[in-house]
Amino acid sequence: MKKISKIKKIALLLGLCFSLNSSMSWALGFGVEGGFKQQSGDTLEGYSSSSQVGYQFGAVGFFDFSDKLAFRSGLMYSQRPLKITNDNTQQSTTLALTYFDVPLSLVVKFEDYMGVYLGTALAIQLDKSSSKKSVMDIVDAKSMVFPLQFGITFKFMPDVGMNLYFEQFGDVAKDLKSYRSVGLNLLFTVE
């Protein structure tokens, strides 16, 4: 029952955000972006974790409130892998978690082509897997997490830019905690 209630609230929030767009201009515009993220996290004592590279791609939109303030949202496909090694046996596994992310960020613009943002994302889990379950499996994975995101987005050509970001969130599953990543995406915009 709680999940249905949360989904309705999120749908209402997203509907409100996108309906506000009809009265706003698009200074940074709508775009597609994709790139890489370096993912890391912590696990049980007796195991070591190593950061791994994941991919991220999707669509984003920037909705202006004023000349200096905008809202950033969209839909991103995100991989969040992590390599885990048993300290005793030295056996390793790669844990792969994939999500659909809906970023919800406030952007402070320095110019029409550059801004910093802070917010969260609604990250809905799509899939989880372990390359070697005998070393470690993903148990009790959360179906929804809310990473805190901080980043800078800018254009270096009229329709081409970059998004450099950091994200931090807590537990994603039993024995998998303090997930964080640094990423760089190439952004192609349409105004």
Description:
With 191 residues, this protein is mostly beta strands. The protein has a single domain (25-190), classed as Beta Barrel (Porin). It is 10% helix and 64% strand. It has one helix spanning 2-20, and strands spanning 29-42, 47-64, 69-86, 92-111, 114-130, 144-145, 148-157, 160-169, 177-190. The chain has an eight-stranded antiparallel beta barrel with strand order 1-2-3-4-5-7-8-9. The protein is elongated, with a radius of gyration of 18 Å.
The main pleated sheet reads as:
8 strands, antiparallel, barrel
Give the oligomer, counting copies of the same chain as homo and different chains as hetero: single chain
Q: What structural category characterises the helix and strand content? A: mainly beta
Round the Cα radius of gyration to an integer and report it: 18 Å
CATH architecture: Beta Barrel
Distance between the termini: 41 Å
What is the name of the CATH class? Mainly Beta
Please write the string of helix (H) and strand (E) elements. Answer: HEEEEEEEEE
Number of strands: 9
Number of domains: 1
Q: What portion of residues is helical?
A: under 10%
| Contiguous helical run count | 1
CATH topology: Porin
Shape descriptor: elongated
Largest sheet strand order? 1-2-3-4-5-7-8-9
